[in-house]
Amino acid sequence: MADLKVNILGIQFPNPIWTAAGPGGASADKLLEAARGGAGALVSKTISQKPARVPIPNISLPFPGSLINAELWSEVDYHRFLEEEFPRARVAGIPIIASVGYSPEDLSVLGKQLNEKDLVDAVEFSIHYVGKDISNLIKTAEALRTVFDGPVLAKFSPSISEIRSAVKALDPLVDGFVAINSVGPALDFDIYTRRPLMGSGDGRGWLSGRAILPIGLHFVATIAMETDKPVIGVGGIRTVEDVIKYIMAGASAVQVCSLAVLKGQQVYGQLAEQLSRWMDKNGYTGVSDLRAAFLKREKKPLYYYGDGTQLYPEIVYEKCRFCDMCVNACIHGAIQFENKIYDLDRNKCVSCGLCVSVCPWNALSMTEYP
Ligand SMILES: Cc1cc2nc3c(=O)[nH]c(=O)nc-3n(C[C@H](O)[C@H](O)[C@H](O)COP(=O)(O)O)c2cc1C
């Protein structure tokens, strides 16, 4: 059996599939439920000095697999988290990470108390409401670093445009990175009532789940190329393949939020089991063998439309079921099947590759033609 144990910053985790700050970490009860569901670590909902006043409704499903939420941070008084929720969650016996936010003053107060009470194994601070200004990020990280002796992780929001500069600036102050928070602001509404799905005043919320996976992967790969410190991937995980993508993009572990909200907190253990089976089947013995495999890939030459050597979609007949998905997805009308014979019009084909991507049978691949 593949070994799912990971050691990150001197902490031993039973597996790399953790909860993410959100409803799954809203209380000790929820954290304990996540532990029973097989999570490799328990990350709390973000606590702050001032409890959030959360509008209702605050979570909706704009399309399958994705959520818009306006949950802000924890509405629980932080004293209660420190005195009751974290101590009760401790009995789970797996690492606990406190998510904290947002101002330098918030982080000084919370970080100091978390340090004194020795309640958690690490702290993750969210920059979601801190903004993009790098000097503010530094002040925030410094405030926590000064008072908390254990590992400090910086959780990035996708609103950061200068990812590499932000990593460089924070690297000396933090022990690792988490990416990404939900994307937005985002809006959706009912066309008949004209009511937004979110009860927030302006109807805005934040997008998470399936739709944001490629953005999360981009952040993780970019951060992992900039630092040797651990990166924890989060955003859009739905399947074990998504977990593998994050680890191959450079993540040491992943967090899961929307999937657990939609399907229940047993998803962490299910993903862990599937990861172990996938690793066995594909010859990986430990998570570190997978880590950053994408970043270490063999770089292929670049091809450009109109240059000498061109790539065209080539068919493998044994795999094709003649479902016409490629025909329908070709806006250029370059693909036809005449009596089950594949006919590609290279004068029309612009080598965009969409047909390869939509084929459910892996029957097409981009092949070099001089
Ligand atoms: C309902 C909900 C509440 C969330 N609350 C928090 C929070 O308190 N703090 C935080 O840093 N991120 C919060 N998030 C963001 C998640 O931790 C995560 O970064 C994001 O949803 C992307 O992961 P996912 O696609 O697996 O949901 C929340 C997300 C959702 C859906």
How would you describe this structure to a colleague?
- With 370 residues, the chain is of the alpha/beta class.
- The protein folds into 2 domains: 6-290, Alpha-Beta Barrel (TIM Barrel), CATH 3.20.20.70; 310-369, Alpha-Beta Plaits (2-Layer Sandwich).
- 31% of the residues lie in helices and 21% in strands.
- The chain has helices at residues 28-36, 78-89, 104-117, 134-147, 163-170, 213-226, 240-248, 258-263, 267-281, 287-290, 325-329, 354-358, and strands at residues 6-8, 11-13, 17-19, 42-43, 59-63, 66-69, 96-100, 122-126, 152-156, 176-179, 183-187, 204-209, 231-234, 253-256, 310-315, 335-338, 341-344, 364-369.
- Strands 3-14-13-10-9-8-7-4 form an 8-stranded parallel beta sheet. A 4-stranded antiparallel beta sheet has the order 5-6-12-11, with no helix packed on it. Strands 1-2 form a two-stranded antiparallel ribbon.
- α1 (28-36) runs parallel beside α2 and α4 runs parallel beside α5.
- The model has no long low-confidence stretch (mean pLDDT 95).
- It binds flavin mononucleotide (FMN).
- Residues 20-23, 45-46, 59, 67, 69, 71, 73, 99, 126, 128, 155, 181-182, 208-209, 212, 234-237, 256-259, 261 line the site of flavin mononucleotide.
